[in-house]
Design goal:
single chain, alpha/beta, Transcription Regulator spoIIAA, five-stranded mixed β-sheet, 4 helices, 29% strand
Length: 126
């Protein structure tokens, strides 16, 4: 099953609601699709709600996804001058309790954080 995303821009935040099953290739494809919307709306804040996503990525997949996301976000910044903050609302087991993917992306310059609720994510934007 692939990852489907519904996106809308409201009050300065790009809202992305994702459903489906995690695979590394699908997650990369969906991330690029999300970045296209960031450019379209000139969004500086992205709230990714993946609470209905399923899957349990292994250690290497978490690392590669974080690395890929950071690289593509850096490309976006260089090409379009947009430096988005990304709030991921995802549940365990997709969200690693050790937050490996988040750490990898953050250490490579991405401004992101994972949350358990959309309210917590929106508060972080403030």
């Amino acid at each position: 099953m692939s990852i489907q995303q519904r996106m809308h821009f409201e009050s300065g935040v790009l809202h992305v609601d994702a459903t489906g099953e995690f695979s590394l290739e699908e997650a990369k494809r969906a991330f690029l699709e999300m970045l296209e919307a960031v450019v379209q709306y000139q969004a500086k804040k992205v709230l990714f709600d993946g609470r209905t996503l399923t899957g349990n990525p292994d250690y290497v997949e978490r690392f590669y996804y974080g690395e890929f996301a950071a690289k593509e976000t850096r490309r976006l910044a260089l090409e379009h001058g947009i430096y988005p903050r990304l709030a991921y609302v995802i549940q365990t087991p997709l969200r690693d309790p050790m937050r490996l993917g988040e750490l990898v992306a953050f250490n490579r310059g991405m401004n992101l954080k994972t949350f358990e609720t959309p309210a917590d994510a929106l508060e972080w934007f403030l």
